[in-house]
Amino acid sequence: MRHFAYLDDHDLSHLFHRPPQDFHRDSEPAVLAAALGATLYSPATRRTLAADIAKQAARGVTSMVLCLEDAIDDGDVEMGEHNLIAQLTEHLESGADGPLLFVRVRAPEQITDLAERLGPALATLTGFVMPKFEPDNGARYLKALTEASLDSGRRLLGMPVIESPCIAYLEYRQRMLIELSALLAAHREQILAVRIGATDFASAYALRRSRDLTAYDVHLVAGLIADIVNVFGRSDGTGFVISGPVWEYFPQGERLFKPQLRRSPFAEAEDPDEAVALRSRLISADLDGLIRELELDKANGLLGKTAIHPSHVAVIHAMSVVTHEEFSDASDILAEGAAGGGVLRSAYTNKMNEVKPHRAWAQAVMRRAGAFGVAAEDVSFVDLLAAASHAGSAAGGEERGHGPVRASVAPRRDEQSSPAYVGM
């Protein structure tokens, strides 16, 4: 697997100073955690799940969660389990590679039960998503994950979702986060990433952000994100990759505020006319808010994001590519001659690079560069999105089973209200 695999060699060499690196299901957890990108959720009840997995992999999706929890009705769990087993068996028999697949369960016992019932199809899974993760059920989740790994002889990784109201409540928050930190530290080799359930946090206070606001504009949610990063995102070797909360919107609707995408990056693209048209498509699909939230995710130490619609994937991945300026600064900070510390002038002559305080940041940049690549010097996320759009427009024969793959940057008409992609 590789991010931007739908681009041809010419586009890769033109767009990237360093292209993304290959990874696979058995890569080191640190590599997989950095490469998760847009983790697309889909209900496990989908009768076409195996075909959906293959289609989304061709479109650039590298990680998916097949959900048996919030994405399906309480009465559909048994049917969802049977369908999941049948569809993963079909996916195994197809011999298709990727994406990284996870099952979101409702209870620890489901991990044990599904691991047994899946049989050989367990080989298609990278691990399990563990929702409403708290100290008590968290210990049981991790025990079930350990036993399933030992019994099957396969490495299974866990992604706990921190989202319970008891963690949101101020009087419990510090104690709960400290207990969870100790629990995850004791099972570090099993934890791929920590996920944040911002929708559940907001629900505890009857809140919901509009398409014109990011999670960081809802101060209660922003405070929770800050506390989770404080405890789980430390750069001293105790931290984990923490993924960004879901962006809930995809259809066009009436807007209260002006679009959040500035015109200038699009006007400065290689093909301004096309880029401005791309800006209009992003705004009409309510993706300008997603772009702003992604920038704030990155500023707050989050990497990757839960996605509930295919149109989000190309945007999340384009925003995850390391810019040439970031790479230049990180390379200078990590250079052998800079090991002793000091202050360097950026090669872009617009900032200082202080070697010791910025080292952890530079190391994180290099991990992201391995997964998503480094953009060429004059290439921005606008150019990367335009390239994805080209790949999509060239795929007119996709539905007939031929033609290039499609990398969607705005929802097609038949996807705009589809219930296929629903999650946190």
The H/E string reads: HEHEHEHEHEHEHHEHHHHHEHHEEHEH
Q: In order across it, which strands form the biggest sheet? A: 7-6-5-4-3-2-8
Which overall shape is indicated by the principal axes computed on the Cα atoms? globular
Count helical runs: 17
Unreliable stretches (pLDDT < 50, length at least 5) are 253-258, 395-407, 410-420
**Euclidean distance between termini CA atoms:** 25 Å
CATH homology-level superfamily: Phosphoenolpyruvate-binding domains
Number of domains: 1
CATH class annotation: Alpha Beta
* Count of extended strands: 11
Largest sheet: 7 strands, parallel
CATH-assigned fold name: TIM Barrel
Based on the coordinates given, report the CATH architecture.
Alpha-Beta Barrel
Radius of gyration: 21 Å
The portion of residues assigned to helices is: 40-55%
Descriptive account of the structure:
With 424 residues, the chain is α/β, with parallel strands linked by helices. The protein has one domain (29-321, 411-415): Alpha-Beta Barrel (TIM Barrel), CATH 3.20.20.60. 46% of the residues lie in helices and 10% in strands. The chain contains 17 helices and 11 strands. It has helices at 9-15, 29-35, 49-58, 77-94, 108-118, 135-152, 165-168, 170-186, 198-203, 219-232, 264-267, 272-284, 288-299, 311-320, 324-334, 355-372, 381-393; strands at residues 16-18, 38-43, 63-67, 100-104, 125-130, 157-162, 195-196, 305-307, 343-345, 352-354, 374-375. The strands form 3 sheets. It has a 7-stranded parallel beta sheet with strand order 7-6-5-4-3-2-8. Strands 1-11 form a two-stranded antiparallel sheet. Strands 9-10 form a two-stranded antiparallel ribbon. Helix 2 packs across helix 16, helix 3 crosses helix 4 (77-94) and helix 13 (288-299) packs parallel to helix 14. The longest helix is centred in the first third of the chain and has 18 residues, at 77-94. It is globular and about 60 Å long. It starts with 8 loop residues before the first helix and ends in a 31-residue tail after the last helix. Mean pLDDT is 87; it is low at 253-258, 395-407 and 410-420.
